[in-house]
Amino acid sequence: MRSSANTPNPRRNGALRLLVVLAREDHPKACTGRRLLRWGRVAPVPWDDARSPTPVVLDPYAPTPLSTADRKVAEDGGVLVVDCSWNRLAARGTFPGARVAGRSHGVRRRLPFLIATNPQHYGRVAQLNTVEAFSAAAYLLGRGEQAAQLTEGFRGEEEFLPVNRDRLDRYRAATGPEGVREVERTLFGGP
To answer: Which of 33, 77, 89, 133 would be 83's cystine partner, CB 3.0–4.6 Å?
Structure first.
């Protein structure tokens, strides 16, 4: 895929390299991952591409939350999202990205609890679409401007960062994964 003039260049401006694997489970017109690809904001990755550097793989079933401790891995290898259907994800109980994350490289991380603002899952906790996941990851890893740019042009997404700003700031200020878990307990309850 060729780069357009407005596509962030990770080598020039410090933007994170964002990678997507399309599971092709959603309706093509509703798939935010496809739009991000079409608009040149992310790069495609085939399921079995073992040549790329170690990415952070966002996996909703990973036990460890994404934190600023993952910044170096993300800066070196990027952030990878598998664009798949939440309905099929819940039905099968496994993450299709396990094949990607299970390779010899790939650091599996889940996003901390955030509120979705996309039309399909508005107000639901932890049911983010692909653009929200990328935006949250970029923000948590210190790329606030990139996070905001990612959501431009998506219906409902102009609310994502403002709705989650306090949560994102608290997660970003936390020290490592255990600090993020403590913030989650404070914000959402639990043991």
So the answer is: 33
Asked whether residue 154 is assigned to any structural domain, the reply reads yes
What are the backbone angles phi and psi of residue 79, rounded to the nearest 5°?
-120, 130
153, part of any domain: yes
Residue 125 · residue 72 · CB < 8 Å: no
Whether 170 is covered by a domain: the verdict is yes
Task: Identify the domain containing residue 111 by its residue range.
Answer: 14-188
What are the tens digits of pLDDT across the range 152-164?
A: 998 877 899 999 9
Provide the token pair at 44: 């495609």
Sort strands 107-109 and 79-83 into parallel, antiparallel or unpaired. Answer: unpaired
Terminal CA-CA length for the chain: 46
How many structural domains comprise the chain?
1
Residues 162 and 130: their CA atoms lie apart, in Å, by: 18
